[in-house]
Write a structure and sequence with these properties.
disordered C terminus; 0% strand; 247 residues; globular; mainly alpha
Length: 247
């Protein structure tokens, strides 16, 4: 909510915001590799905070917002505010995701040793895909990189974000799906409610994204107008005007 309420402040101090998030992630991920405890008065709520910052909850929420901005009506004031900080939300989501990858790094060793369950194997494969896609998507969301790219080239790269969003869905399916029974048992696992929620979020997004592309295909003038906005955009606004689904 703070990011939406003060978009200009967020863009002006984006480096401070990124640095703060890196410090937070290092604080929660650090005990996995170094011998220190999560003290500093966070003993009671540290598990909840660790789940929030290291287990994908916050990153998933940020990426969902970034994705849905691309399908929301552009005339809404909320859409305009979200688009103005879309790049910053994306970078923050990537920073948190990198923290999660380091937090669960031991799963990669178990994956290559064949020690994981079917669901965990799917989630790990999805994580590898997400990592490969996340690096270029994050870098091109940074202002000092974005400003040196041609709008059309940036837009083409951002189409990979659709594959990234699918990877997020695949990751969730692997983590929360029940693979011990048949298809009818898939949504009956311990995290069935969370899985239903994530499925609803991402399936709805892809339906809306396809619907918007069909609308633009039936109304070519809308696509021409969008492309002109991309060509004319101020580079300081980053991906604010691009609906390529990009981050």
């Amino acid at each position: 909510m703070v990011l939406i309420a003060f978009p200009n402040t967020v863009k002006k101090h984006r480096i401070i915001l990124y640095s703060a998030m890196i410090i937070v992630e290092a604080y929660f991920v650090g005990p996995t590799y170094f011998d220190y405890s999560l003290a500093f008065g966070l003993s009671e709520g540290r598990n909840a905070l660790r789940s929030f910052f290291c287990m994908g909850i916050m990153a998933e929420a940020l990426f969902a917002v970034v994705a849905y901005v691309g399908v929301m009506p552009s005339k809404w004031d909320l859409t305009k505010r979200l688009k103005s900080v879309r790049a910053e939300l994306s970078v923050l989501g990537c920073i948190i995701s990198f923290g999660e990858i380091f937090y669960y790094a031991n799963y990669f060793i178990m994956f290559f040793n064949g020690e994981l369950s079917t669901g965990r194997n799917i989630a790990t494969i999805a994580t590898i895909l997400l990592f490969v896609l996340m690096v270029p998507l994050m870098l091109t969301s940074l202002y000092f990189v974005r400003r040196h790219m041609k709008p059309k080239n940036w837009q083409r790269l951002q189409y990979f974000s659709y594959l990234f969003y699918f990877g997020l869905l695949l990751h969730i399916v692997g983590l929360y799906g029940n693979f011990d029974g048949g298809i009818s048992d898939f949504l009956t696992g311990r995290h069935a409610d969370a899985l239903r929620c994530y499925l609803w979020i991402w399936v709805s997004y892809f339906v809306l994204r396809i619907a918007k592309y069909l609308f633009q295909w039936l109304h070519p003038a809308k696509k021409v107008e969008r492309d002109m906005m991309i060509e004319d955009e101020d580079t300081d606004k980053g991906p604010a005007y691009c609906d390529a689904g990009g981050t």
